[in-house]
Amino acid sequence: MITLGGPAIYAQEEALDEPLDTTYFKAGEDDWNLVESVLKRNPDAVMLLLERGADPNAVAEGGMTALMFAAESGDVLMVKMLVLNGASLDFSDAERTTPLLIAVFNRHFDVAHFLLEKGADPDHRDSYQGSALLYAAAINDYEIADLLLYYGASDSISDRDGNMAVMTAVYFGNLETTDVLLQNGLDPDGADELLNTPLMIAAQQGNLPISQLLLEKGAALERVNKQNYTPLVHAVFFRYDTIAKLLIDSGANVNHTLKSGETLYDLARQQGSNKALKLLKSAGATTSPKPSFTEYNLGWGNSFRSNEHMMQIRFSVVDRKFGYFVESGIDFRPIIRKVQLEIDDLLIHQYRETRWVWTLGGGKNFAFLHDKSGMEYGAYGGLYGMLSFPSHKGVSENEKARYSLALSAGLYMKKNFAGIKAGAERYTYGTLLEGAWKINITLFLRILKRRNPNVQKEITY
Fold this sequence. Notes:
The chain is α+β, with helices and mostly antiparallel strands. Among the domains are: 194-289, Ankyrin repeat-containing domain (Serine Threonine Protein Phosphatase 5, Tetratricopeptide repeat, Alpha Horseshoe), CATH 1.25.40; 293-448, Porin (Beta Barrel), CATH 2.40.160. The chain has helices at 7-15, 30-39, 43-51, 66-73, 76-84, 99-105, 109-117, 132-138, 142-150, 165-171, 175-183, 198-205, 208-216, 231-237, 241-249, 264-270, 274-282, and strands spanning 257-259, 262-263, 293-305, 308-319, 324-332, 337-344, 347-370, 376-392, 402-414, 418-426, 437-448. The strands form two sheets. Strands 3-4-5-7-8-9-10-11 form an eight-stranded antiparallel β-barrel. Strands 1-2 form a two-stranded antiparallel sheet. Residues 1-16 have low confidence and may be disordered.
């Protein structure tokens, strides 16, 4: 058994003159007593138990050792006593957590320093594949991060998702630690398994100071991830105009093509970012004039007024670049209604009528607002041809099909998979007392053929 010497021991010997509290000891269970003494911050009892042969590596309920508890509390004296009397530096619990990782979690610089000095492994990874350096980066403890690198921590170690230390510091918005890591020579472009770089993540979070720091340290402007997104694409997609301006001013390519027929300018228009559109246009961004009919909507609507009610099932194809749409479907009256038809100036017939209508038309959406949640707000207008087929109960000879035009306009709001629109429609079926203007409310489902993936970064430890 190794024992401590020097001033620390002298202090212990002086303390032994005072009564030693052992009231909590369990007879014959010195291993348990050792852990309990560490928890009670009782160094005299710890020394006594070590001298009596208590196992410094005994595991308490929950899987932690006395050294782990001492590291958690930040008690450097007890950490030294345990290590110098045989406690394992790299003993780990069920989650593969070591005393060094615990010291880092709890920001105990002096404990971490002593453990590293005595040979603790700076690159040990727990069950989440996190290391001491990654956790120091996550909690913004730049002093411990610097210490770990001094004691040989790998500058390219990564977690299970490929996140290295700079990426971790950037994701958690830790400017100071990012700066220290970069000063130590870590790669500003260290990418994760999806090929996202730290600058991409700073851009998607709208973090201007970190974006500026990364650019100062040479971060690449034109690296692309697996979705073919550059840092500028992230800034435009997540609608951070300040970051977009910084990247454009730094020389980012404003004509980067995301996919065939879709440019950065098209993305900015889809996202409803007028500022980004102006920035891109002033920097020379171009767009393809070819429309992109990649949105499909299936709607269920109601067109009604006091004495008329038609239900609508409509399918539409929408151009996501310019807002044009083509729409077709079936309208029908859900109930039999009494109608009056003027036969001539002297004769009016009344019938119990059902009616089916085939509709085909088109129009344009005018988006005027996109919020941060992805909701789009706008107005629409359209012109439709309507071919209606009435059927009169008790009449063997049905009315001939009737053709009419309908005007439609209103407001809409839509998000990822659904939307709603409400407005007015003007059309008639040639019956008396019908009224031309109707109110229209439609719910619709959206299917995007070429949806731009939301690649928002997540790191969880």
